[in-house]
Amino acid sequence: MTVQSKHPETLLLHAGHRADPTTGSVAVPIHQTTSYQFQDTGHATRLFALEELGFIYTRIMNPTQDALEQRLTAMDGGAATLALASGQAASHFSMFNLAWSGDNIVSSTDLYGGTWNLFANTLKQQGIECRFVDPEDPEAFREATDDRTRAYYAETLPNPKLHVFPIAEVAAIGKEFGIPLIMDNTATPIICQPFEHGGAINVYSLTKYIGGHGNSIGGAVVDSGNFDWEAHKERQPALNTPDPSYHGAVWVEAVKPLGPIAYILRMRVDLLRDVGAAISPHNAFLFIQGLETLALRMERHCENAEAVASWVKDQKKVTKVYFPGFQEGELKRRADTYLKGGYGGLVGFELDGGADAGRKFIEALKMHYHVANIGDARSLAIHPWSTTHSQLSDEEKLATGVNENYVRLSVGIEHIDDIIADLDQAMAAV
Ligand code: PLP
């Protein structure tokens, strides 16, 4: 029996797995196996030829991973998902599945430091140019586009600035050219649904809110199934020309009997097969556990973050607060259009007294963990200038919005009184 619902809260508990057909196990079993017995040689041949979809080898697919992928697909209202070893692998695959040496992508400047490095340096070494543009002006994406532009990329709620990205505006520009908008929705699962606004692909670091308990690294790419890869065939050669790596398959044609999954299928059977950034079955299981309570946790993260932001705003030593709910004009319009049910769990602020004040504040925290992560159930704090963004040049740090005196909070789900009490005693130490 398949449970039907339009609500992610329900689908995250029921999509993709009802009970194990052999044992009746309600929890998704951890299929800790490398390989799968073929029924006969014909079955094996059909699986390898993609005439039939099924399990071959855990580097490419696994039943626990499959249940996770189906739940993520349901959460976002997409067509198919590929779960991967990390969020970084997901960002890389999302681009590398379309752009080859000599091609380019256009990305928002407002990115997680690791993604910035990947795009500015590693992709460049692979011959792919990343053109960074300021997301405040959607038209900047059009201006940076040429015949070799294969994809647009942005984060929904990038920290440190916490300016919500203009999803519909940039997606519409991309559609004119046949260029998909890829959204890193890591900071806003459930509360932002990029596909409803024209986004083509979502990328996640599962490590954050989806896992939720700070115990596993993982990533995923979700395909909306709504992007027309054939509308401008010459724009997307990876999906529209014969693939020498898979019997000359032209992916948009080959998948026609299977549904609109050309992008994800190519990523799985080419990139994942060759590069091997596979998620472990055990981590897939832990992310399924995280998904079961994600909707509830997001509610509490949002509620607590709003209370923390209000408290921070009243502090004399704080010179600037970053929180989407407090923005004005076009930024507030974007926040209210694209985020539903809250403004996310992140709050940033700048302290009077430069980098020293930031360091003192973080060192005085007792309950908050000082870690390079966001989206844990526990409250977390960090000074990005000296940590997550430290491998960028000072100019690059400033371009992504990181100032020396900036502190980032990932507000957890503890009782709000305890969160504020800890922040209050740390502020007294500055
Ligand atoms: N995207 C965002 C927005 C992130 O914050 C991170 C990690 O902090 C990543 C991607 C990379 O994810 P992972 O650490 O799972 O590789």
Report on this model:
This protein has 430 residues and is of the alpha/beta class. It folds into two domains: 8-21 and 29-282, Type I PLP-dependent aspartate aminotransferase-like (Major domain) (Aspartate Aminotransferase, domain 2, 3-Layer(aba) Sandwich), CATH 3.40.640; 295-427, Aspartate Aminotransferase, domain 1. The protein has 15 helices and twelve strands. The strands form two sheets. The chain has a seven-stranded mixed sheet with strand order 1-7-6-5-4-2-3, with helices on both faces. The chain has a five-stranded mixed sheet with strand order 8-9-12-11-10. Helix 5 (113-125) links the parallel strand 2 (104-108) and strand 3 (129-133). The protein starts with 7 loop residues before the first helix and ends with a helix. The mean pLDDT is 95. The site of pyridoxal-5'-phosphate has 16 residues, from helix 4 and helix 5.
